[in-house]
Amino acid sequence: MNFENLQKTDPTCYDFVMDEMERQETSLELIPSECIASLSTIEALGSPFTNKYSEWYANKRYYGWNEVVDKVELLAIERAKQAFPWVAHANVQAYSGSPANLAVYNAICDAWETIMWLSLSQWGHLTHGHPVSATSKFFNAVQYWLNKEWYIDLEEVESLALKHKPKVIVVWFTAYSREFPFKEFARIAEKVWAYLLADISHISGLVISGVHTSPSPYCDVIMTTTHKTLKWPRGAIIMTTEKGLQKDPDLAKKIDKSVFPWLQWGPHNHQTLAIAVALWEALQPEFKEMNQAIVQNSRCLANELINSWFEIATWGTDNHLILMSVWKWRGVFMQEALDTAWITLNKNTVPNDPCTPFNPSGIRMWTPIMTMRGMRETEMKKVASWMLRVAEIVKDFEYLEDKEMRKARLGEFYKFIESNNELHAIRAEVKELCLQFPIYK
Ligand SMILES: Cc1ncc(COP(=O)(O)O)c(C=O)c1O
Q1: 304 ligand 1 Cβ < 6 A
Q2: DSSP state, 226?
């Protein structure tokens, strides 16, 4: 990638770009949500479409000279419908996943109607009614939970739905490593006349590729961010299915109005162009092969971790994601120590976690970036062995209940990992591996 203009006009910001590229090229990125946008989508993002204002939708803009922008938006919509069969309508203007979810709720619900979603502590998402999110100001949220085996507790979902009669039930999880049970949720939603919203931001790449069941025949509305497994630029697509239109023939129109003008104004046309480009890429056979490899890598990594005695949620994975309990050593210690070794992932609560989200008992990881770089089974085995070595290094750092003692112990821990030779040795091995699998260079 060439940034020569940036280098001339603003060397400080140019250096930031170089530093970030260097970091991404030389470290292992396992944070679920992060992916690699293709060079074509990056070029589209940097195109002069960013200059144009085009409020409203294709063929009915308020300002003039939107003929080309209209073509871009209509193409993105057409390709979205190709990528997700049974989708009757797509809105590609939402700036990102959070506003997209709010727009869907606003389109379907009146103030204070009930939405039902997975508890945040069990990997739901703030934007579905959590008290810190704007959604909680407008809608009443009821939470469902996982069962003891860390699977969705469908019996509980059904009894809660019968009790609370929600207007919307949301199927979505941010750390669930098994198939999303769309069909079962649809049965429950139909019983109580609820709308079924699938937020497939984490799995949409797998869905397009056919390596995960599609929500289209079962759900009324589908929302996906366009980053995460889609490896696209940031943004969101809100899709109304045939089923959704049967329930309410005006549903798609309501969603469009909710995105614009209720929540947003001028669409980000450069983003829409990049989404159109990325959708074309996702319709190619290589995208499917990549997603198959992502799941194979995830299974391989999960097996290796289990063989190294780690406890994995549900003892395996059907998708690209792994949630691992690190009871004895706490998620925060593993995350920080792995960071020092340049393996980036995030601490995460595990079901029935006695600790808080800031000091949880697990870590969460996924395989898309490693797979897109070309890494396969041999490399997954290496990653598992590095995790085991890091776990050995941090094993004596127990979580302390007392806040002051905990703070002091954390201070000691940071000093310890910064000067730990074994972590530095792993860091060198990680760098060596990464340089064999370049991202952009
Ligand atoms: C499942 C899911 N939906 C929505 C969002 C919000 O998306 P954004 O960060 O684009 O606002 C996230 C991001 O974490 C997510 O994981």
Answers
A1: no
A2: S
> Nearest C-alpha to atom 5 of ligand 1 is from which residue?
97
How far apart are the C-alpha atoms of 154 and 184, rounded to whole Å? 8
CATH number of 287-436: 3.90.1150.10
pLDDT at 396: 82
User: What is the pLDDT confidence band of residue 128, given thresholds at 50, 70 and 90?
Assistant: low
Bridge-partner residues for 195, per DSSP? Answer: 168
Question: Is 96 close to ligand 1, i.e. is its CB under 6 Å away?
Answer: yes
Tokens in use for 178? 């098994």
What integer pLDDT is reported at residue 123 of this predicted model? 61
Residues 337 and 60: their CA atoms lie apart, in Å, by: 54
Q: Does domain 44-282 have CATH number 3.40.640.10?
A: yes
Question: Do 287-436 and 44-282 fall under one CATH topology?
Answer: no
Most confident residue range from 6-15, 175-184, 227-236 = 6-15
Task: Enumerate the active-site residues.
Answer: 53, 55, 199, 225, 228, 234
Beta bridge partners of 223: 199, 238
The atom of ligand 1 lying closest to the CA of 98 is 11
Question: Looking at residues 331-337, what average pLDDT do you find?
Answer: 92
Residues 86 and 146: beta-carbon distance below 8 Å: no
CB neighbour burial string for 306-337, b if at least 16 within 10 angstroms, e if fewer: beeebebbbeebbbbbbbbbbeebbbbbbbbb
pLDDT tops 90 at residue 174: no
Q: Residue type for 280, please?
A: W
**C-alpha 159: how far from chain center:** 29
Going by alpha carbons, the residue nearest to atom 7 of ligand 1 is 97
297 close to ligand 1 (CB < 6 Angstrom) = no
- For residues 270 and 272, what is the distance between their CA atoms, to the nearest angstrom? 5
Q: Residue 380 C-alpha to ligand 1 middle, in angstroms?
A: 27
pLDDT band of residue 126 (cuts 50, 70, 90) is low
Mean pLDDT of 173-185: 91
- When comparing pLDDT for 94 and 122, which is higher? 94
Domain residues of the chain, as ranges? 44-282, 287-436
In this predicted model, what pLDDT tens digit does every residue of 132-154 receive, in sequence order? 777 777 888 888 888 878 888 89
Alpha helices in 166-268 (DSSP H): 182-191, 204-208, 242-247, 251-257
Taking the CA of residue 173 as reference, the ligand 1 atom at the shortest distance is 1
133: phi then psi, degrees, rounded to nearest 5: -100, 150
Summarize pLDDT for 47-56 with one digit per residue, the tens.
999 999 999 9
